[in-house]
Amino acid sequence: MPNAFAHIELTTNDLPAAKKFYKSVFAWKLSDVKSPAPYTMIDVGTGVGGGMQAPPMPGAPTGWMPYVEVDDVKKTVAKAAKAGAKIMLDYHSIGDMGAIGVFTDPTGCIIGVWEAPKKAPAKKAGAKKAGAKKAGAKKAGAKKAGAKKAAAKPAKKAGAKKGR
């Protein structure tokens, strides 16, 4: 998984440290672009990427708060901790919406990770359909059996009671 997110910029006081950290945690391709101020593009492979920059003006706040999509929140948070992150929220289930984790990178910026909810196994859905087919087959069998019973009874002769 390329760990995609919507375009968002990280503004940090230590761009080289931020680049080193994020490259070690996520499968991102980082590339510096020519601009008046240092700017690094984040290519996530598929989906929309983002960018990293030093504060664009004196007093500009640093930070960001996107949620990066990951396969496994627990594994990613552990990877981030190993790379120097301070874990703020290790793993938090959000019910049928998946799970999240939040950490601060070594430059002091906060980022969240999001894991999509696991899909229900297809086996369960197939079992319900098979059960429905069996029930339908039983009903059809009952109708056929009723028809056979009716056919087995001899037909009443018209006027059979007349001669009494």
TrEMBL record:
Residues 118-164 are annotated as: Disordered. PROSITE patterns: VOC (PS51819). Coiled coil: none annotated. Residues 120-164 have a biased composition (Basic residues). InterPro entries: Anthracycline_SecMetBiosynth, Glyas_Bleomycin-R_OHBP_Dase, Glyas_Fos-R_dOase_dom, VOC_core. Residues 4-116 form the VOC domain. Gene3D superfamilies: 2,3-Dihydroxybiphenyl 1,2-Dioxygenase, domain 1. This is 1,4-alpha-glucan (Glycogen) branching enzyme, GH-13-type. It comes from Labilithrix luteola.
